[in-house]
Amino acid sequence: MREAGRYTGLNGAIHIIEHDIDTPYGMLHVVIRGAPKGNRPAILTYHDVGMNHKLCFNTFFNFEDMQEITKHFVVCHVDAPGQQSNASQFPAGYQFPTMDQLAAMLPSVIQHFGFKSVVGIGVGAGSYVLAKFALIFPDLVEGLVLINIDPCGKGWIDWAATKLSGLTSSLPDTVLSHICSQEELMNNSEVVQSLRHQIGANVNQTNLQLFWNMYNSRRDLEMNRPGTVANAKTIVCPVMLVVGDNSPAEEGVGWGGCCVLSCNTFVTGCGLLQMADSGGLPQITQPGKLTEAFKYFLQGMGYIAYLVDRRLSAGTVPSASMTRLARSRTASMTSASSVDGPRPRVCTQTNSSDSVGQVTQNISQTMEVSC
C-alpha cells in the first residue's frame, strides 16, 4: 500500500488520502474522503468506463447538500485499474481484469480499511461491477445506488456495432456515445465538450481501451429468484436504480432493467428513479435531485437523517444528526419503518423529478409489487 498524499478540503474539515492497494487481480487506486464513523457503512463509489472518480463523482460529492450527508459517512472512491489521473500505461500484453474480477478486487479494499460494510454508488460500468460485487459478497453490501446500469451482456449485433464505431470514431467519442444520448451529443453542451476533452487528456487511452473492451464483453448479471433455479443468486440489499429520461441507458434500465434487478432482488426491494430533464450524467447535471433521492434512500434503509435544508433560513433547522436503527434481512410484510422490523421488497417507478422521495417512501410501505 502506498499513501500518496493528504489534502484538506472545504472549511479544513475534509481529509482526502490516496492509496494504492494490492489485490489478487492487480493494483487498485483508492481515495478515502473523511474518516470511518462508528459502525456505519462506508459509501463506496465506482465510476463509469471512460472516467475516473474525479470526472464521475466530484460534482456530486462537492455539492453542498451532499456534504451534509457525507459528514456522517466515510467515502471510498475506487478507480478501476489504470483509469486514475496520471496512471502509468499498462505494458503490452497486459490482461485487464474481467468484470467478475473487478468485483472480486473490492473485498481487499474493504478489509484493508476495516470497513464492516458499504453502501455502493455506481455509474454505468461501475454499476455493473457493484451489482456483481453484491451478488458474490452479499454480506459486505448494505445498499446500492445504480445509475444507468445495463444488466445485460451485448449481443452479436451490439458487439458488431461497437466494433464498427471503434473503427470510425476516436476512442473518446466512442465512449461518449455510451455515456451520453445522441441528443446530448448533438447539442454538444459545455458539459459534453468538457467531458470529451477530459476523457482524452486525463485517462490513459491504452488503459481505457482495455477497460472498454472488457466492459463490452460482459455477460448478463445472471440473477434468479431463489426457488426458481438451483443455486440461484440474488441481490439481498435495497437497490435504487437511477436513469435519466434522456439517457442512452434509459431503454435498458427503465422497466426492462427494473424487471431484471427488482424481480430477482429477493429480500428487500428495488426502486426506480427515472429522472426528468436529465441525460446520461445525472450525478453531474442534476446533483441536487440525486442528493435528495440518496438522502431518502438512506432513510429508507434505517439511517435516519435530519439534515440542514439550505433553502431555509439559517437557524431554523437543528444541526444535522444521523443515527442507525436496528435492521434485519428477513423477508416479511411488516413495514420497514419499524425500528426492529425487517424490510419488504418493492418495484416502483418515479417519473417526476419532483417526486424523488417516493422511491424510499414506497420501500417503507407494506406492499410487494411484481414486475
The count of helical stretches stands at: 15
Order of helices and strands: EEEEHHEHHEHEHHHHHEHHEHHEEEH
Note the overall shape.
globular
Mean of residue pLDDT values: 75
Q: How many domains is the backbone divided into?
A: 1
* Strand order in space, largest sheet: 1-2-3-5-4-6-7-8-9-12
Q: Runs with pLDDT <50, length 5+? A: 1-12, 253-260, 312-371
- What structural category do the secondary elements indicate? alpha/beta
Biased composition (Low complexity): 325-338
InterPro entries: AB_hydrolase_fold (IPR029058), NDRG (IPR004142)
Protein name: Protein NDRG2
GO biological process, one term: cell differentiation
Write a structural description:
With 371 residues, the chain is α/β, with parallel strands linked by helices. It has a single domain (16-301), classed as Alpha/Beta hydrolase fold, catalytic domain (Rossmann fold). The chain contains 15 helices and twelve strands. Helix 7 (171-179) crosses helix 9 (190-202). The model is unreliable at 1-12, 253-260 and 312-371 (pLDDT under 50). It comes from Callorhinchus milii. Belongs to the NDRG family. Residues 325-353 are annotated as: Disordered. Keywords: Cytoplasm, Developmental protein, Differentiation, Neurogenesis, Wnt signaling pathway.
